[in-house]
């Protein structure tokens, strides 16, 4: 039993934010009690205490990472050059890096050889430190399609369905499908749909039958439409690139996303954060328009960063939250997106994402008040995951990170 006290505790429940409050964590790693310190039940008064001069809030969630990419200048080259044991070392490093950034739950949306399953289980056992991982194995993609090198090639609906079952056999949690191409992979382009709607439906229906959420990588409007109509649970990127490669928008597709309750992650990260401060060739304005249009329709926005892709290291998580705020999303909504809403999107809302009794003790402590300045999230003082405290490792400030030389839609080139 340990009592974490703070200047304020953000519960992200109806209890709201409580001043001079505390969170009691039991020996099973669950939250036993949350409330004002003055009301702390007698039974917990003698337990050891740790004080955070600032804010305690639910641990952060990244719904889109790649543990197998190193966030350096050429992560795909490194993945392809590495043996499985070398990849595992990198993946464990990146899991620890995410935890240092205050990310206590993360979903890997593309890894090789079911190594993500191994990492997830090692963390649960306590053999390694990292976030609670939701893993999806290799993304499903046509032969030679976007990210084919991870090993998830499947052509047409029936092969897609078989691939879903194979992933289930290997104990993945969710299914990632490349609904459109990307700039990065030769012969694939982000505005082309890679599968028809009926093909996607075969895979998505089977994922649901097996109790898994299905997530689509989708840049182009056609690929977004196919995935939404086929019953996808969440869209990644969702940039609305038109078939001529220009930046477009489709109000009818946006309406359908809203009507079907599909969650959207714009995979905003430190690269977008850098573009905000420089010349993005209109790309940031375009993305801000899409964010605004979808929010107006009530589409639930979640936080994912595509961590690990070129020059987007895992420790830079907080940059993406600052971008959402700069794009007009109120800070309170950003903080909920990064915790309770992202948790719900993955079906984890009875486990993590809010601070209340019975939930996993996944929480962070930061100096200052994130409701006033999100930047304080960049340096958590305390991270608790699965109820076990962790001292964050030091990493460079966002300002010190190298930036890309490309801007505008070409910046999508490295999205996975
Ligand atoms: Zn990705």
TrEMBL record:
It comes from the Bacteria. This is Amidohydrolase-related domain-containing protein. Pfam families: Amidohydro_1. PANTHER family: ALPHA-D-RIBOSE 1-METHYLPHOSPHONATE 5-TRIPHOSPHATE DIPHOSPHATASE. Residues 55-372 form the Amidohydrolase-related domain. It comes from Agromyces bauzanensis. The lineage of its organism: Bacteria, Bacillati, Actinomycetota, Actinomycetes, Micrococcales. One of its GO terms (molecular function) is hydrolase activity, acting on carbon-nitrogen (but not peptide) bonds.
């Amino acid at each position: 039993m340990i009592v974490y006290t703070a200047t304020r505790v953000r519960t992200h429940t109806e209890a709201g934010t409580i001043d001079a409050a505390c969170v009691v964590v039991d020996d099973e790693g669950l939250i036993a009690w949350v409330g004002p310190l003055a009301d702390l039940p007698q039974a917990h008064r003698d337990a050891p205490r740790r004080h955070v001069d600032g804010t305690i809030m639910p641990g952060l969630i990244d719904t889109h990472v790649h543990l197998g990419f190193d966030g350096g200048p050429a992560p795909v080259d490194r993945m392809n050059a590495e043996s499985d044991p070398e990849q595992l070392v990198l993946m464990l490093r990146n899991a620890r890096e995410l935890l240092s950034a205050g990310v206590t739950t993360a979903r890997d949306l593309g890894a090789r050889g079911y190594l993500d399953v191994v990492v997830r289980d090692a963390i649960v056992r306590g053999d390694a430190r990292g976030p609670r991982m939701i893993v999806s194995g290799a993304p499903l993609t046509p032969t030679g399609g976007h990210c084919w090198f991870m090993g998830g090639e499947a052509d047409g609906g029936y092969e897609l369905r078989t691939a879903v079952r194979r992933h289930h056999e290997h104990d993945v949690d969710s299914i990632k499908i490349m609904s459109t191409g990307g700039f990065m992979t030769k012969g694939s382009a982000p505005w082309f749909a890679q599968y028809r709607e009926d093909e996607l439906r075969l895979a998505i229906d089977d994922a649901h039958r097996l109790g898994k959420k299905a997530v689509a990588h989708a840049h182009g409007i056609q690929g977004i439409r196919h995935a939404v109509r086929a019953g996808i649970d969440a869209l990644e990127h969702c940039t609305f690139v038109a078939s001529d490669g220009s930046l477009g928008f489709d109000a009818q597709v946006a309406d359908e996303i809203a009507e079907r309750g599909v969650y959207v992650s714009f995979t905003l990260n430190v690269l977008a954060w850098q573009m905000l401060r420089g010349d993005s060739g209109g790309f940031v304005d375009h993305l801000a328009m899409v964010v605004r249009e979808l929010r107006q329709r009530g589409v639930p926005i979640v936080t994912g960063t595509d961590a690990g892709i070129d020059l987007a290291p895992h420790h830079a998580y907080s940059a993406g939250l600052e971008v959402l705020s700069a794009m007009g999303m109120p800070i309170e909504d950003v903080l909920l997106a990064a915790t309770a809403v992202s948790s719900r999107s993955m079906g984890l809302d009875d486990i993590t994402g809010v601070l209340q009794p019975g939930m996993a003790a996944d929480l962070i402590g930061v100096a200052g008040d994130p409701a006033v300045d999100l930047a304080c999230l960049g340096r958590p003082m305390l991270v608790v995951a699965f109820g076990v405290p962790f001292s964050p490792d030091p990493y460079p400030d966002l300002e010190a990170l190298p930036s890309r030389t490309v801007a505008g839609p070409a910046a999508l080139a490295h999205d996975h």
